[in-house]
Amino acid sequence: MPTLVRKSLGEYRRALIGWTVGLCAFLGMYISIYASMMKDPETFSRQAIAKYPGAFRDLMGGMTDIATGRGYLQAVAYQLLGPLLFTMCAAILGNRAIAGPEEAKTLELTLTLPIDRRRLLLERWAALTLGLLGVALVTLAVAAGASSAADMDVPFGSILAAHTGLFLLVLFFGTLTLCVGAAFGRKQIALAVVGVWGVAGYIVETMGRSIDAISWLRWISPVHYYLDGRPLYQGWPYGDYLVLLGATAVLLMTALLAFERRDVGV
Amino acid sequence: MTAVVETEGLTKFYGTRRGLEDLTLEIRPGEVFGYLGPNGAGKTTTIRLLLDVIRPTSGRATVFGADTRDPRVRARIGYLPGELALEGRERARDYLQFLADVRGGVSRGRIDELAERLDADLSVRMGELSKGNKQKVGLIQAFMHEPELLILDEPTSGLDPLVQQEFLAMVREARTAGHTILMSSHVLAEVEHVADRVGIVRAGRLVAVEDIAALRERAVRHVELHFDAPVPKESFDGLPGVRDVVVQGASLRCTIDGRPDALIKAAARYTVVHMVSAEPDLEEIFLTYYSEEEGRHAHAGA
């Protein structure tokens, strides 16, 4: 493994372990509640669900089939909270690539090593990707294990398809953070961009899909390409996932170009 | 011999603020170049331009004959940043090893040898290093790969006097090995004992480049002479290079610029019982440069 990738992973290690533990605890706990809820079907009866405001149900992805294994898994793990937590993890790690060290002024010495800037940025990005992939693999195992333990009756293939989408989504947001950080060198700007694009994108994709005035905005929401194909139900939405991958590649290219031109640490 | 560092009209503006303007400078192989100026004068800007951390607004700079954009050049440079930041839980030794690996390795035992000389504890986590120890780690990483060019930005800040002596010894050794050193400082006293030449930068402009030997020749010296009997002031008026003469009975105080020859010859006519001559204060000439520049600029502006 290239020295800088190894070094960056070493720097991410504690954060990666922390987020993996947190995400696994979240997934394990929420998924295991399913079994006890099913013992009391009244909680999730259609009448009970109908009491929630429509907008809230939209926000949670409809909730029409929350009493089924798939519906429950989608609503608690893959709809909102899972992507939200994992995206926060990706944004925090993405900021550690360039903007964090630049603000801490430790980037200057790294830049004076005999490495060109493109390689520096690519290796930092590779470490980010590997780190997120590690978190994704462990959480996938936990999600699959917990759902089969809770008798959810969701095939592994569906969970894998949904989890891959989750990974691609957070990789997109992680790369976005890295890209804004590489262009401006400021953590706050990067977090603001990710926060606004992520939250607005989510709202447009869920509540906004039935509002004509803003529903066209779905096309620029990364969340659209994660949720729209309903991978937990319908398997792999290849086209959507390719869009996420392509967008990530565009962001990475942008980051390379922006970082190459910039004065660092001023 | 080609210059190690060469700049031509090197200019850097941060927006409209001038960082450095029209710097043309040549640093020759094997010399120790002291780069002097008050804080904010453009020293760090120059150094960051040479290391390609920031990009010039105009002009050009080469190191070892290659454009500063070429990353391979940086393998031959040892750099100590002016504001060295070391963070995190990593131990200092592991960080140094990482830097060494990226630069293509350092000879065995070199890190330990330097750590011992500077009395640095490398088992400490980076975020817990004291200011002085941080500076030591910075010096070790700059010197460890025995680079042909050392660029040291305010190297002695935060070092206690003993370590400063050791550092100066390391600089001399590097020069003996034929390496070139560019070191910045805001006080001349820090570099005058090792530097061959000094450049003085002020408000983003290089105002003078001088040989230290020549500078010393022109140094201002305060001299005090005591005679066995009162002396007439007239005997010492109008001597070349002698000014501010004050005679009080049998003692005389004055300031000499450059050589003390005329004063000695004039004093030799009387019986000298005691003589005090302070070390030439290069700082003072350094400041005269500033005020002269100031005057010239004011004049040109009028």
Automatic annotation (TrEMBL), chain A:
Keyword Transmembrane: yes
Record keyword Transmembrane helix present: yes
One Pfam family matching this protein: ABC2_membrane_2
Taxonomic superkingdom: Bacteria
GO CC annotation terms, alphabetical: plasma membrane
Keywords associated with the record: Membrane, Transmembrane, Transmembrane helix
Record GO terms (molecular function): ABC-type transporter activity
Membrane-spanning ranges: 16-37, 125-147, 159-182, 189-208, 241-259
Full protein name: ABC transporter permease subunit
Lineage of origin: Bacteria, Bacillati, Actinomycetota, Actinomycetes, Streptosporangiales
Automatic annotation (TrEMBL), chain B:
Domain ABC transporter: 5-228
Membrane topology note: Peripheral membrane protein
Entries under InterPro entries matching the protein: AAA+_ATPase, ABC_transporter-like_ATP-bd, ABC_transporter-like_CS, ABC_transporter_ATP-binding, P-loop_NTPase
SMART domains, A to Z: AAA
Domain of life according to the entry: Bacteria
Keyword ATP-binding tagged: yes
Subcellular location: Cell membrane
Family that this chain belongs to: Belongs to the ABC transporter superfamily.
Record protein name field: ATP-binding cassette domain-containing protein
Lineage: Bacteria, Bacillati, Actinomycetota, Actinomycetes, Streptosporangiales
